[in-house]
Design goal:
The chain has helices spanning 9-20, 37-48, 56-59, 66-79, 84-95, 104-107. The chain is mostly helical.
Length: 108
């Protein structure tokens, strides 16, 4: 584990690659709540693998846009969710609405 400050961003990026591995797929688009949340989770699994890791609960926040990020902060952090399975289920139950509405605009 690295305990000193980084001199520049290049060192930081190298350390992150060493710690989290190099993935061929990157999560560059943030989930905004308009699409199926299962697609976002499928991309997540493609990047990070299918075996849940403890840090996933904290890393997931960085893949969310404003509205889902607010959900994460207000609901999940407030309740102290620390398990990936619980966070994943809450995310799916909150943002899955395709059974009732064609798109998010109809749901609102």
């Amino acid at each position: 584990m690295h305990k000193d400050n980084f001199d520049d961003w290049r060192e930081y990026r190298i350390m992150m690659r060493v710690h989290f591995g190099r993935s061929k797929v990157r999560l560059t688009e943030k989930y905004d709540g308009r699409n199926d949340p299962r697609d976002n989770l499928a991309k997540w699994n493609e990047v990070y693998g299918v075996k849940p890791q403890p840090e996933w609960v904290h890393l997931f926040y960085h893949t969310l846009d404003v509205i889902p990020m607010n959900w994460y902060l207000e609901t999940e952090i407030h309740h102290g969710t620390e398990e990936w399975y619980v966070l994943r289920q809450g995310f799916l139950m909150t943002f899955s609405f395709e059974d009732r509405f064609e798109c998010i605009n109809e749901a609102l």
